[in-house]
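Retro notes, structure queue

What went well: the backlog is down to a handful. What didn't: a couple of records were mislabeled last round, so from now on we paste the full input next to the output in the thread. Example, using DUF2938 domain-containing protein from Pseudomonas shirazensis:
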Amino acid sequence: MGVTVLLISTLVVGIGATLVMDVWAMVLRRLGVATLNYAMLGRWAGHLLRGRVHHAAIAKAEPIRHERVLGWALHYTIGLFFAAALLALQGADWLHAPTLLPALTFGLCTVVAPLCILQPAMGAGWFASKTPAPLRNSLRSVATHLVFGSGLYATALLLSLV
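Corresponding output:
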């Protein structure tokens, strides 16, 4: 597999998996379940660029210009990065015959990012410990990242059929 095909495949798998995750979040919102507002991710990233890593409550931090766009762009960039990491670990051959277990396992591993980096930095604490329902919120993050892993697999599978 050539470098160009691998890069395009990585883009497709990363965007596809992130889209699957977004559809999941849309379904949750329609069911009345709160999901991450990507404007808050953009706000956190904007403050990070200014040297501030931690916030007591990101929603109370000063808004950043274009934070919603920045948050969505970062969300998809992270999805691309995770897809690239999975392909680096599995090798390009995985794209020809993708299997579910590596994608799900990798998706599960990616939950470390929100639970141990993003949530503490945004004021929610490690494993959402400063939220009203830490266990429920942590399990929701685990489920969302398993959905992302499913999206990695589903997108790679569709790509392998083309």
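Agreed that this is the format going forward. Reviewer comment attached to the example: The chain has a mean pLDDT of 96.
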